[in-house]
Amino acid sequence: MLASIRRWSSSPKDVSRPRLLDRRLLMPEVSLADWNKFLQSHPNAHLLQTGEWGELKSAFGWDAVRLIAGEFGVQILFRKLPLGFTIGYMPKPVFSEQLSVISEQFWAEADLVCRKHRAVFLKIEPDTWQDNFIPSTSLRAGLHPSFFILSRHNIQPPRTIVVDLRGTEDEILARMKQKCRYNIRLAEKKGVAVRTWDDLDGFYKMMLVTGGRDEFGVHSLEYYRRAYELFHPTGMCELLVAEFEGRPLAALMVFARGKRAWYVYGASNDEERNRMPAYLLQWEAMRWARSKGAQEYDLWGVPDEDEATLEAQFEQRSDGLWGVYRFKRGFGGELKRSQQAVDRVYNPLMYKLYLWRIAGRESV
Question: Which domain holds residue 129?
Answer without folding.
Answer: 2-155+338-363
